[in-house]
Design brief:
With about 500 residues, the chain is an alpha+beta fold. It has 15 helices and 17 strands. It folds into 3 domains: about 5-100, Beta Barrel (OB fold (Dihydrolipoamide Acetyltransferase, E2P)); about 120-275 and about 385-490, BirA Bifunctional Protein, domain 2; about 285-365. The protein binds 4-amino-1,4-dioxobutan-2-aminium adenosine-5'-monophosphate (4AD).
């Protein structure tokens, strides 16, 4: 009888059976008569144990010296082993090497960011990147599910656009048969016209911004989902936003608990992501930033960073002393090497935080009403809360032309940003749209845009204009927040950033 092919994630259904797994060698070690192959197959990791006594010497040697990331098909008997990675093991009865890999460039030793980005095609196989990719998949699936199940119609908006949607500073110009056009910064303006046909719509696709800032939260190509709803007001939009974000987080908790554990994500924090979120106006946020409470929070944070730094330095010194003392087993040396990478990365981050904390505290204390919230301001506000925070009613002068002027205070607009906790800042930007022809015309004029380019958009305010609004959520910032990943570039398979395009 042919041996049943299965996957590592399905091993639980095959205990006691002989099965075959197709995958790649993630890691291996040997101890005389045994070789322990850690196989990965895209669904998980499994330890496969090869006993010398069961194999011809040549075969045993081939498996023993097999290089990291060689591809192979392993046959063996499955057994439950809670102490083993993934909880199951295979006692190997046969193994066929498909492609032998030698000198795989990514090893457990420390590699710089540049090196890993150049080797992104291989780095995607690392456990961390793999787990982030699985979470991203669930986030995208949950996004579609939420809107499809709540009466929204998907509208595919164009990538080539003749005008700016989100300000002219971040436009990517493309030569379109001799005409300058731009890569889409948003699908919103098109969605607004579709909302007048379907009521509730959304678009979801790649979005392009020529961001000239090299930060850990900006990409030049990212994925954004944008819902747009006719007959909705600001409280209605906030409610939609908090229900949507909570649903996405709960789906990840349900489907990716193992991946979240691998990533060291803050699971209790995620479990707490339920409506209602915190609500404050921009004016209240500005007051909070300048308050004694914020100053005290920043001072305490600085102290906790310093204490953690001392702790890490001691841990590093202990490991280095152990290594120097000699006689450390190979598996322990590998474990130590991995631990040192993690500790040194955290140390580097802490040093940056210790350096930046006083600067950010000063910026916050000197915050002036009227300017947009900066990245560090958003971080402070979000870190002072354990749930996401909606900041509403920003100054009109700091925001896009299409946002509705608040008729009870014309200095502000009916908009909101959603700030994610744990310091990743804004994950959603949205607003009620200006639905009055004259107000909108005035704003287009103030921005210095040519009204001719927006004539179709203005038409929507002539023919059956209704209160409407929507928002955009950035997939990569959301994935970074959920996974606890520090840099947005790790949250998209092939990142595009300002400074360099790798592969
Ligand atoms: O706040 P933004 O610019 O909003 C819009 O584009 C609106 N037209 C959306 C709408 O109302 N339909 O962007 C929305 C979100 C941000 O909150 C952020 O998550 C993400 O898009 N985003 C970026 N993500 C990565 N890199 C960048 N450069 C980003 N710019 C925005």
């Amino acid at each position: 009888m042919a041996v049943q092919k299965t996957t590592i994630s399905e091993l639980k259904d095959h205990v006691g059976e002989e099965v075959s797994l197709q995958g790649w060698l993630y890691n291996s070690r040997s101890s005389g008569k045994l070789v322990f192959l850690i196989l990965r197959d895209g669904t998980g990791l499994c330890q496969c144990i090869v006993e010398k006594a069961e194999f011809a010497e040549e075969k045993f040697d081939e498996l023993k010296r097999l290089g990291q990331e060689s591809s192979l098909v392993v046959t063996g008997t499955c057994r439950e082993e809670p102490r083993s990675v993934g909880g199951y093991e295979l006692s190997v009865t046969g193994a066929e090497v498909v492609c032998e890999a030698t000198d795989y460039p990514i090893t457990p030793k420390e590699h710089g960011v540049d090196f890993l980005l150049k080797h992104r095609h291989l780095h995607l196989r690392s456990q961390r990147q793999w787990a982030i990719g699985k979470v991203r998949h669930t986030v995208i699936d949950a996004i579609r599910r939420f809107f499809n199940d709540n009466g929204f119609t998907l509208i595919d908006t164009p990538i080539f656009a003749p005008t700016a949607g989100e300000g002219e500073q971040t436009l990517f110009e493309v030569d379109y048969f001799g005409q300058p056009v731009y890569l889409a910064q948003t699908g919103q303006l098109y969605l607004e016209s579709a909302a007048m046909s379907y009521g509730k719509v959304y678009c979801f696709g790649p979005t392009f911004r020529a961001e000239k800032s090299k930060t850990r939260r900006h990409l030049t190509e990212f994925w954004m989902v944008e819902p747009e709803v006719a007959y909705i007001d600001l409280p209605g939009l906030l409610e939609l936003g908090e229900n949507f974000v909570s649903f996405v987080v709960q789906q990840v908790l349900e489907k990716n608990r193992g991946e979240l554990e691998t990533l060291g994500a803050d699971i209790p924090h995620l479990e707490n992501i339920k409506p209602p979120f915190v609500r404050m106006t921009y004016t209240e946020a500005a007051e909070l930033l300048k308050s004694d409470k914020a100053a005290k929070f920043m001072a305490e944070q600085l102290e906790s960073f310093k204490a953690r730094k001392t702790e890490i330095e001691k841990h590093i010194a202990d490991i280095e002393a152990e290594e120097k003392s000699g006689g450390v087993k190979k598996w322990k040396r590998e474990k130590n090497a991995r631990m040192l990478i993690e500790l040194r990365t955290e140390l580097e981050e802490l040093e940056k935080k210790i350096e930046n904390n006083p600067k950010h505290a000063k910026l916050a204390a000197e915050f002036n009403w009227g300017k947009d919230l900066g990245g560090s301001d958003e971080t402070i506000i979000s870190q002072m809360h354990d749930r996401p925070v909606f900041v509403t009613h920003y100054p009109r002068s700091a925001k896009a032309f299409y946002m509705k002027t608040d008729r009870s205070n014309t200095d502000v607009v009916e908009n909101f940003d959603l700030l994610a906790p744990e310091g990743f800042g804004e994950i959603i930007g949205g607003s009620v749209r200006e639905d009055d022809y004259d107000y909108l015309m005035k704003r287009i004029d103030e921005e210095g845009y040519d009204p001719e380019n927006y004539s179709w958009y203005l038409d929507l305010r002539k023919y059956g204009s209704v209160p409407h609004g929507g928002f955009g959520l950035g997939v990569e910032r959301t994935v970074a927040w959920i996974t606890g990943e520090k840099h947005i570039r790790q949250c998209i398979p092939f990142p595009r950033m300002m400074d360099k395009m790798y592969i």
